[in-house]
Amino acid sequence: MDIQEYFSLVFSDYTLRTITLGTAILGAVTGMLGSFAVLRKQSLLGDAISHAALPGIAISFLITGAKDSNTLLLGALVSGLIGTFWIRGIITKTHLKSDTALGLILSLFFGFGMLLLTFIQKQPNANQAGLDKYLFGQAATLVESDVWMMAIVTGICLFVLLLFWKEFKILLFDKDYAKTLGFNTKTIDILITSFIVLAIVLGLQTVGVVLMSAMLLAPAAAARQWTNSLATMVFLAALFGAFSGVFGTAISASQNNLSTGPVIVLVAAVFVFVSFIFSPSRGLLFKQIRFIKNRRDLQLHKTLAFMYNIAETHDDISHPHEIKILNNFQGFTKGTLKKLVEKDYVTLQGSTWSLTNEGFKSASNLYNQLTKNDE
Amino acid sequence: MSDKIAVQVDDLTVAYNYKPVLWDIDLEIPEGVLMAIVGPNGAGKSTLIKSILGILKPIAGSVSIYGKSYDKQRSLVAYVPQKGSVDWDFPTTALDVVMMGTYGSLGWIKRPRQKQKKAALEALEKVGMLPFKNRQISQLSGGQQQRIFLARALVQDASIYFMDEPFQGVDATTEIAIINILKELRKAGKTVIVVHHDLQTVPEYFDWVTFLNVKKIATGPVKDIFNDDNLTKTYGINYKVSIQE
Predict the structure, then answer these.
(1) Which pLDDT score is estimated for B241?
(2) Which residue of chain A comes nearest to B92, CA vs CA?
(3) Residue in A closest to B164 by C-alpha
């Protein structure tokens, strides 16, 4: 199946439609919540939470013996939440920094989860196969009820986000100040974190424990490059996330059934890459262009100012100079002088260059402009 | 200045781990003063303000604002945190930050409306930042960011203003602009409490001063207590090489 065939089938084929819709919704909700994680500098929290969810999946399988995805994800949710609160506890109660706490909980829970998984695999139970799909995710296992579940959680999340928008914003920007205004920052904090945990757990089936944090971070990091407004950033992150889901599924379905989770993450990474390079205000490309342009402008200013200083010592502004004189002092290139000629600031007569009246005027204002723009 | 006590602190003790940062502070701040809190790095100046505002929990002692607890008098108090305490790359505009000053009076869920926007614009005008209202905050200079913080507190329209080093890292023009606004606040009968570092300017800017170095050294009118004796008691002999905060 090629990409075209995929897109012609996506609306008619039940499985394709379910998976596409599921990954799109998942991308949207994780992108949305990921913006908050990124702005709170808790990018690694997502990684820790998703890894912390693994033992929950194993334990709930051990208890129920069933592979019903909702039951397993409930277990994941519980152990994800426990991991999160342990991380918070470690940070507030000990001297350890947050990166240490995150790394500690991540590896501890993941290690325990892997231990349980291998234990389960040794059990004489025919049902045990397939639990390891939660490591890297398997979008093909999504069924309609899973998608409904995702849609409902996304809906609730969106509602809460809109309702407490102002509270979320002020907590993200200035927590102490929010506290002095009388907002219970702990409640807002727990609300955001719980939703992040919920979104991660929802994505485990599709993207898996190991790569889940990329779904949270990549769309948000990409979105941040394009805007200076929080609302736009959240919206863009949701959009990028949703598109990553759709394109990732399309590519994976059309290319010999490549594993969906990793493909989605790679598509999201492409969004990040493009954003880092091509964003007009923050992108590397335009930054470099602005840098080169500034340097060139400065070179022009320097030449102009130099000629201005010489002109001031002469009675005649347009007293001509050999390029040698101009070159000898500061190493000006002919190119800079030629550019000044184009601007009518300098004229070339034979082999001597002289300042025009306009050039003199502009040069005398040069320093004033600089100081004015300095504020 | 009136006879009323705006802020009263009793037996306040704060410790981060085991070592106390503030030890048994008693402080009465009369209404209508423009007060500097001075002391070496690590003296607990910011901690004092944060404890009064309930950001930090003291291990002992109490604070009252016009005779009642801070929780009940929140609307009377505005706060200007240290500029370095937030991430200025946060995706938002100058106007938006100033609008946050209205969130307290709005309470939960309610959105700011035209009235709040108008108040925010007026505050921006007062600090001379109206032309920059739609600027992304990372594109503002340090002095401009400080003015935005000041405007955010002005929007709160409080009776008591707490400011944590509002002159830190600002140029002379901004410093004068800020101190003029503070003096105007005092003229309007407000109480302004400022953590301050530049001892030179204390007599010129302030009429009330508190010397702090873990313990309270002295508090009172600048003309009575701002002298070598108290400075030596607060800073010691070589106060210039004091420990980092």
Answers:
(1) 36
(2) A229
(3) A177
* pLDDT tens per residue across span A155-193: 999 999 999 999 999 999 999 999 999 999 999 999 999
Reported pTM: 0.86
Average pLDDT, chain B: 91
Nearest residue in B to A223, CA atom: B91
**Contact yes or no for B96/B145 (Cβ under 8 A):** no
* Protein fold of A3-282: ABC transporter involved in vitamin B12 uptake, BtuC (1.10.3470)
Distances B19 to A132, A179, B42 between C-alpha atoms, Å: 50, 25, 12
Spatial separation of the C-alpha atoms in residues B180 and B174, rounded to whole Å:
10
pLDDT band at A333 (very low <50, low <70, confident <90, very high): low
- Is residue A295 exposed (0-12), middle (13-18) or buried (19+ Cβ within 10 Å)? exposed
Quick one: which of B96, B83, B146 has its CA closest to A228?
A: B96
- Which residues of chain A does B55 touch, with a Cβ-Cβ cutoff of 8 Å? 176, 179-180
Classified by CATH at the fold level, domain A288-364 comes out as Arc Repressor Mutant, subunit A (1.10.10)
CB contact under 8 A, B103 and A224: no
Contact A228 B71 (CB under 8 A): no
Burial class (CB in 10 A: 0-12, 13-18, 19+), B60: middle
Q: Is the ipTM of this complex over 0.85?
A: yes
